[in-house]
Amino acid sequence: MRKILLGTAFSVALLATSCSTTKTADTKKEEKLATVVGTKWQLADATGTALPTIKIADEQKMIGNASCNNFSAQIKMNPDGSFFAKNVISTRMTCKHIDTEVNFLNMLRKANRYKVTAKRLELYQNEILLLKFNRMP
Description:
Blueprint: H1 2-36, E1 40-43, E2 53-58, E3 61-65, E4 70-77, E5 83-90, H2 98-110, E6 113-116, E7 120-125, E8 128-135
Antiparallel strand pairs: 1-2, 1-8, 2-3, 3-4, 4-5, 6-7, 7-8
């Protein structure tokens, strides 16, 4: 009888430990996503005087400046790293380098995945890096 009780107690302890490990991994992903909300980012590795900037206003909205025109988008950033931007709209001022701005907004629409660290936000289309941002103070 003692062997059965010990075996059962060991099984329950093992099960509880494995469940808490999974929860910790999920919690870390959610915490990473929470640290993105409210942050501002500037496009990295680009030339020009007015570099595009973005702000993750909340889990569902991004606002920013595409170098000349302001824009906003509905977004979805999931803890698993998936990313979607839709309904990307912008003001329509005439700008000297409008092609660059149009390309930036198109890449934003194509992104379907993201990676974030304390200083860097990267947007990907599958495995292809589309946009790389540096965190702004």
